[in-house]
Every structure is written in C-alpha cells, then in structure tokens.
# Entry
Amino acid sequence: MAHESADFMGGVWQRAGQLGEIAERRRRAALFSGLFVIGLSAGIGATGLPHGFGSSQQIAYSDFAADDQLSPAALLHVGG
# Structure
C-alpha cells in the first residue's frame, strides 16, 4: 500500500512538473510574439515616409536628378 502511494505521488509531481514546463513554454512564446510585433511595427514606423512626400522612388530620383556633383571630392570642396 505504501508503494502504491509513493507511485501515485511521484506521478502527481511528474504531472505538476510537466504542467509547469508547458506554462513556461507558453509564456516564452507569448513574450517572443510580443517582442516580434513590437520590433516589426517599430521598423515599419521608422522606415515610413511622412505624409505628403510621395513615393520613395520619386524622392530618390529628385535627389539624384539635380546636376550637382555628388562625388566625395565635390562634397568636401577638394580640388578644382
């Protein structure tokens, strides 16, 4: 009888440990998901253009379409 009680209690503690591990996995998955969403939204927010500027292709074209010299020497006013 004492042996059956020890087996029963061992099974109870084993199951309690399993439930604890499952809860820990769920907590880690929830934290990872939350951080992933926060990071993704921060990245999207950081790369988004302010309203009214149009597309990034138009901005890039207007920056490089000017006749300005964009070489390092011209930007630093070195040479001719």
Helices lie at 2-47, 56-65, 72-75. The chain has a mean pLDDT of 78.
